Amino acid sequence: MKGSCAGREVRIVLIILAVLLGCILVLAGVLLAWSPGKPASFLDENGTVLEGSIAEKLHVNIGGVEQGMFIRGRNTKNPVLLFLHGGPGMPEYFLAEKYPSGMEDHFTVCCWEQRGGGLSYGSGIPAESITAEQLVSDAIEVTNYLRKRFGQEKIFLMAHSWGSFLGIRAAARAPELFHAYIGVAQVSQMLESERLAHAHMLAQYAAAGDEKMVKRLMDFPVAESESAVRSFFISNLRDEAMHKLGIGTMRSMKSVVTGIFLPVMQCRAYTLGEKINIWRAKAFLRSDTGLLDELFSTDLTIKVPRLEVPVYFFGGIH
Predict the structure, then answer these.
(1) Which of 79, 95, 135, 174 has the lowest tally of Cβ within 10 angstroms?
(2) Which residue has the higher pLDDT, 146 or 10?
(3) How are strands ordered across the β-sheet holding 155-160?
């Protein structure tokens, strides 16, 4: 009797394992089918590729390293706009695809994925070679590539969050290359910014009577030390607390999983391997390089006191 029961249990376990393996294989097949790795083309009313348009994913040697980018636009004669993503190491092309802005109607948009991140990730890149100064130099080199390729004397430079930490410095270093600089969620004094954000969230949760969240936030005494600010910045609590208040990556975003992870995996412009590399690169850039140290130790109001190009800042209530 005992042998019979044991045999039945083994069969049940094997069946469960077989079902799980089958589910994994089906999921892998779906992900592969959903990851052709090609950006969508612009089509005319007949369903053919729009004449004069561009939709490319390519790699260019920038600063001695092959770096990836997407270039899309309805008309290559339009002005060129270079976009610097946030992070460090968080490309945003998948968000531009999920939430179309219409920018490609007016610009030829280049979404460059910075050294060590996304399409530009490579296990052979020395961590010590990835510095903010190097990324600023890379941004200028990408700018010159775009100027030459599209035959334009100047381009527009738009940067978001971490990207603005680099972009505003590139605009200050080489203003002759740009029509204008556009900062979205512009970084200036990151240390003070995180303290203000923490204080705002603490006040919001206290007013709502959420004592549990108040206690968790107070476990990071950001007003007392710089190390506490950095610990808070990389903690899961920061994302959780922000998203519950609608002040995260997007106001409607409730979690990193639904707001970022799933859209990355659903983006058809990346191969499955490239999607995996986005997360490998993010971990690498944040833990193995000194980029976060540079971000928190730099005061851009001192480093970049003036720009010699027109400047636009986007920082609305949403």
Answers:
(1) 79
(2) 146
(3) 54-62, 65-73, 108-112, 80-84, 155-160, 178-184, 311-314
